[in-house]
Amino acid sequence: MDEVGKGLGRRSLLALAGVGLLLGGCASTAPSALYGLTAPDDIADGRSRPVQVLVPAPRALKALDTGNIAVVDKGPAYSYFPQAAWADTLPNVVQAKLVQTLENTGRLRGVGLPGEGLLIDFQLQTDLRSFELNIDGPDRAVVEIAAKLINDRNGRTVASRVFTAVVPAGGTTVDRAVAAMNRAADQVFREIAVWVLDKV
């Protein structure tokens, strides 16, 4: 598995990433490594809720609405790890893991995706604000998701909240970056699930 930026400074990482993207037109753009996210399955037990929750794909700016793994410096300025990508577009990966996290609680009657034909009680709408390796200062993973819980019966907002986690990455290789983003996302997914269960 290729690693990017091993032993290199922050600026070298950005330069390498930029060169990788520029060379994409001259060579195969298929990544040599695909990365996924884990979903927490250890959320504390509690009473079940006889409701069904719809989880649409998160909204995101173009910088994050991609399969590329983002690296962010001052500005913010976005670049991406060459030869590495998420297993799908980032919003789709996050959507799948939010669904899995809510299902793992075992405390909802149903959790579904748009188009599955479920009779929905609530919608969990989300926005990806940050999902990246941030190198503006200490190398760290930053995951920030704004969530809104909507009563699907009347369209009213039940609650809204921004969930943020920052985890030290300990380096700028793609493996370290993804591992740190996984830990940060795990924290955010867990907090979102607990919040949803408290509000429905």
From TrEMBL:
Coiled coil: none annotated. It comes from the Bacteria. This is Putative ABC transporter protein. Residues 41-193 form the ABC-type transport auxiliary lipoprotein component domain.
